[in-house]
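Sequence design from tokenized structure. All designs in this work follow the same two-part layout: the structure record, then the generated sequence. An example of the structure record is given first.
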């Protein structure tokens, strides 16, 4: 019986050593992709590009909003002294202006979202390429994006952000 128990313990120890040696070659890292998409140089450039691209339309929309606000204030201030037909005409004009503002605002939001998705897709491709490059160079077996918990010692987010900043810009950018 003692021989059998001893043999089992030896087998368990050997199995443990085999498993430990198999895992010894595994190198794991984790990345906070939200931080990469917020703090990396390509992501910042993409956001600045979008701001510049839609700046004029945003300003035009703000002017339209101010015009409608001014018309609303004028109507509230002088509506009582206006004739019924003039007041109704002003109210109709204000309603039309308000609908135009809402339509343009909706269009702008849709266009900004579509362009943001295009720009971010390009950034995501660059990020993934950089992550693969780091994994190959440094011998990572597995790199995870987003984890419920990860020990800071395996977090390579800063390394990815630095690598993206050191990259030369993509052609045509």
């Amino acid at each position: 019986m003692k021989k059998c128990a001893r043999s089992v313990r030896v087998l368990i120890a050997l199995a443990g050593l085999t498993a430990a040696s198999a895992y010894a070659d595994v190198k794991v890292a984790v990345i906070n992709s939200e931080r990469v998409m917020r703090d990396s140089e390509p992501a910042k450039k993409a956001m600045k590009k979008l701001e510049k691209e839609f700046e004029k339309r945003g300003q035009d929309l703000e002017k339209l909003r101010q015009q409608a606000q001014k018309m609303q204030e004028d109507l509230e201030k002088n509506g009582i002294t206006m004739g019924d037909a003039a007041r109704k005409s002003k109210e109709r004009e204000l309603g039309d202006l308000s609908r135009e503002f809402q339509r343009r605002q909706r269009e702008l939001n849709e266009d900004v979202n579509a362009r943001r998705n295009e720009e971010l897709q390009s950034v995501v491709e660059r990020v993934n390429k950089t992550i693969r490059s780091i994994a190959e160079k440094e011998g990572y077996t597995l790199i995870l994006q987003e984890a419920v918990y990860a020990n800071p010692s395996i977090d390579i987010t800063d390394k990815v952000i630095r690598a993206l900043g050191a990259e030369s810009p993509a052609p045509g950018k």
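The longest helix spans residues 84-138. We note this feature because it recurs in several other targets discussed in the main text.
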